Amino acid sequence: MCGRFVSVNKKKIIEKSFNISTTKNFLEKSYNVAPGQKINAILNNNKELILDSLNWGYSFYSKNNNKDQTIINSRIETINSKFLFKDSFLKRKCIILANGYYEWQKTKNKKIPYFINIPVLESIFFAGIWRIENRNNIKTPVCCIITKEANKKITFIHHRMPIIFSFNEALLYLNDTSNEFSKNIKNTEIEDELDFYEVSTIVNNPLNNYKKCIEPMN
């Protein structure tokens, strides 16, 4: 899964690279993005690329738990068959802007946090979906990150990972109205460049939001 990541992208570079039509909102910097927070994303809205900040997580009512819940990830393997996601996957794709993400390796006695990124890229692009939800009578754009089986380099940390696109793949995904490209995603062309290293447990607390979160452990 992907439950925490880093987003310190530069707005002007993103706008120029993707030829953004409209920028609504943009959050400048976060070294510890957590579920429920706003995150930067590029939306394809009727063939217009829009840069905006969206709430991370879809809301849904759980009959089993008899309450509203939030889900932050969707599996690529089942996204077309899940009622909550399939319409978004066909009609409302987005790219979530990041610079790397955190994952925790479970051991017998503890969880060890790792920072996973692609060092050759200043920005990385997660596959996502979005929709509008009515939250307290306010129309609120929300999003989910799409995940896949982890690259073999990082399976010892976790068995899932976000789908990470190269720039060209990100454009293909955003403009894929037929889903021919998207439904066949297994491995992306950039994921073999993944790197990882252990970081401090300060990242466990999302209130710790500063550059020290991504510093390697000695």
UniProtKB/TrEMBL annotation:
Coiled coil: none annotated. GO terms for molecular function: lyase activity; peptidase activity; single-stranded DNA binding. Pfam families: SRAP (PF02586). One of its GO terms (biological process) is protein-DNA covalent cross-linking repair. Keywords: Covalent protein-DNA linkage, DNA damage, DNA-binding, Hydrolase, Lyase, Protease. The keyword Lyase applies. Belongs to the SOS response-associated peptidase family. This is Abasic site processing protein. It comes from marine metagenome. The lineage of its organism: unclassified sequences, metagenomes, ecological metagenomes.
